[in-house]
Write a structure and sequence with these properties.
alpha/beta; Nucleotidyltransferase, domain 5; 5 strands; 40% helix
């Protein structure tokens, strides 16, 4: 009985340590703390969004006016399909949110594994000089971790002046990119029915471009604020 009680306390302390580490990185990104020597100067929040299926998505959609206000030269908006099979597979969006710049980055991949995770991390690393230490906040999904069998993540991070900061288990809400995913779903996917991954991917990329050019947009900030409160 004593042993069980000890392990629970130890686990809680470990989770608190990880949470404190992530919150310290956020304080650096928000300008509340000046990074000391050896601490990251740039903070990314990273996660995968998906799987991206080719299926009708419920919800509202930003679209050209229909009905009496419709442009006479425009074709009617297509109706959503009823789909029962998924013959085209799925895709996964690897995305990262730069806290200081308020910018979103994303790559769409066919697979979600350690190799594609490191590929995206290398892209994030390329955005800043190697002497600038960066941190990547992510969850404990197995491809993000260094294990006894595969130490590629830890080896790459050490060699490239990168800190991988993990949120505590069951604390995905602590990752600030989650609110950005809520906005992506609202502006780019709700009410859509893409017939191909190319079309869906194009819509997501167009949204990211729009979002980065209009980071101060009131509608965007409202959606993100609601998601952060939730």
């Amino acid at each position: 009985m004593h042993t069980t009680s000890y392990s629970v306390v130890h686990s809680d302390e470990y989770a608190d340590t990880k949470k404190a580490g992530v919150e310290h990185l956020y304080a650096i990104a928000d300008g509340e703390v000046t990074p000391e020597e050896g601490e990251p100067e740039v903070i990314f929040c990273m996660d995968e969004f998906g799987p991206l299926n080719l299926q009708p998505h419920p919800g509202r959609q930003w679209a050209e006016r229909g009905g009496k206000g419709k442009d006479r030269d425009r074709e009617p908006r297509p109706r959503r399909r009823a789909t029962y099979t998924r013959p085209h597979g799925v895709r996964h969006l690897f995305a990262a949110y730069d806290l200081a710049k308020d910018q979103l980055y994303g790559h769409i991949k066919k697979a979600k594994n350690r190799s594609t995770f490191l590929e995206f991390c290398r892209y994030l690393r390329s955005l800043h000089p190697l002497d600038v230490r960066i941190a990547i906040v992510c969850d404990n999904y197995s491809p993000h971790l260094t294990t006894k069998r595969c130490q590629r993540v830890g080896t790459w991070a050490s060699a490239n002046n990168v800190e991988i900061a993990y949120t505590p288990t069951n604390s995905s809400w602590l990752n600030r990119i989650e609110a950005q995913f809520t906005a992506l779903r609202y502006f780019a996917l709700d009410g859509t029915d893409h017939a191909s991954h190319k079309a869906q991917g194009s819509m997501i990329r167009r949204y990211i471009i729009w979002r980065n050019k209009h980071a101060a947009d009131e509608r965007l900030r409202e959606v993100v604020s609601r998601a952060n409160v939730a």
